[in-house]
Amino acid sequence: MQKLTFITKEPQKSGGACCGTGTTDSACSSDTARDLLSCPSANRTAPPWITGAVPTPAGAVPQITAVWTFADRWGMIKSRTGAYRMRYTVPPGLYALGGPGRDSDVFVSANYKLSFDILRRSLAGHHAWVLVLDTKSINVWCAAGKGTFGTDELVKRVTEARLEAIVGHRRLIVPQLGAVGVNAGAVQKRTGFRVSFGPVDARDIPEYIRAGYKKTKAMSTMRFTMLDRLVLTPMEINPAMKKFPWVAAGILLIFGLQPSGLLFKEAWFNGLPYQLLGLLAVFTGALVTPVLLPFVPFRSFAIKGWLMGVLSVFVATRYASLPGVQDPILLIVAYLLFPALSSYIALQFTGSTTFTGMSGVKKELKIGIPLYIGAASISVILMVIFKLREWNVI
User: Fold this and answer.
1) Domain span at residue 168?
2) 8 occurs within a structural domain
3) CB-neighbour burial class of residue 209 (10 A; exposed 0-12, middle 13-18, buried 19+)
4) How distant, in Å, are the alpha carbons of 258, 263, 386 from that of 392?
5) Positive or negative, the Cα torsion across 131, 136, 137, 143?
6) For 10-24, 52-66, 249-263, 320-334, which range has the lowest pLDDT when averaged over its residues?
7) What is residue 236's DSSP assignment?
């Protein structure tokens, strides 16, 4: 077994992947898995998940471990909470988990590193080949819908890895959530490899293997529990909170603007209830609606978010005794603007769920965007009327 040395670098905003970390290094190109094997020439040290190389008739293949390190866990946290996930990749190509041979299974994964990590951890104690597709740092299910986890990419990786020279069987195990992007018949016709769709959840793979590669109904059922949804909410909360300062600044400007100038006291005390309603709208759309998703009426995410937004405004204005919001015009604005904001944010969660498809999302956006713009426009007009009345102009 060949011993390898590599070093890793922190991910940058652009470029390919160097040693599986999502960054480029001219001395250590790693656009594919096999390019990792050139790292020793640049005096590199290995990322913890690469332990060496396995010789094969098609050349050496990077060897990986099923054990997660602190760096893997920290990467999972960062990928769950921000844009880092779009740079959290491993080079596509073939990897060897443990010490696989000609009879070992071939599992297909995405090059989103969290998908790759979950698969290798689920295969702890097994010797297997892992074929990683270039999905542009998108997980299997989303990539299958977008076309990057697809037939052509799978055929390309099988061919480039010279898989037929490495394994004696002709079977690829593809995640069930990738089925919408992979034409099994076309793959077999073009490569000679038969596609078997494995369990939905990687943690069911060991049981799937023990059962003779047969799936139970539970293995074929997508489980999207409250905890699963809660884990995904930081990806909705963080982008919304990054934009919230602009909303807050707009609220302060509107309430602080007086004929004599911009007054801080009026901006702060009169605008504070609307700042709180804005924050409430963000967390209603990004946290409460996703967590309670199956229990909120209607299939439409936009309607779910709007209903929860209306409920949150009702509770806040009725029971929280927010000062200043009881003015009829301001109350109308509150019920127009903030439920629309909750609805829009809740609609973003469609990309994280199995509850809807691409056509459903496009339909909701086509209907929802004009309504959001309309609600914002009417709110602006009402606020202008409110200010003119406040200034005794009308």
Assistant:
1) 85-222
2) no
3) middle
4) 11, 17, 10
5) negative
6) 10-24
7) H
DSSP 279-347: HHHHHIIIIIHHHTGGGSSSS-HHHHHHHHHHHHHHHHHHHS--TTTTSHHHHHHHHHHHHHHHHHHHH
Pairing of strands 93-97, 61-64: parallel
Chain Cα centroid distance, residue 46: 27
pLDDT in tens, 151-162: 999 999 999 999
The sign of the dihedral angle between the CA atoms of 287, 291, 293, 296 is negative
In the chain, the N- to C-terminal Cα span, in Å, equals 85
Residues near 77 by Cβ (< 8 Å), separated by ≥ 6? none
The total number of structural domains that make up the chain: 2
Residue 269 and residue 361 in one domain: yes
Q: Which of 194, 222, 250 is the last residue of a domain?
A: 222
In a domain, 336, yes or no: yes
In angstroms, the CA 175 to CA 142 distance is 12
Please list, residue by residue across 356-391, b when 16 or more beta carbons sit within 10 angstroms of its beta carbon and e when fewer do.
Answer: beeeebeebeeebeeebeebeeebeebbeebbeebe
Residues 205 and 271 in one domain: no
Q: What's the burial of 3, exposed, middle or buried (CB within 10 Å: 0-12/13-18/19+)?
A: exposed
| Residue where a domain terminates, one of 198, 222, 246 | 222
Q: What is the dihedral of CA 260, 262, 268, 273, to 10 degrees?
A: 90
Q: What is the pLDDT of residues 58-93, one digit of tens each?
A: 999 999 999 999 999 998 888 887 767 678 899 999
Q: In degrees rounded to 5, what are phi and psi of residue 172?
A: -115, 135
108 domain residue, yes or no: yes
The residues, any chain, with a CB within 8 Å of residue 203's CB and separated by 6 or more, are 122
Asked whether residue 63 is assigned to any structural domain, the reply reads no
Among 77, 86, 74, 14, CA closest to 351: 86
Q: What is the pTM of this model?
A: 0.72
Higher pLDDT, 354 or 127: 127
* Residue from 278, 283, 284 nearest 338 by CA: 278
Residue recorded with tokens 């934009």: 243
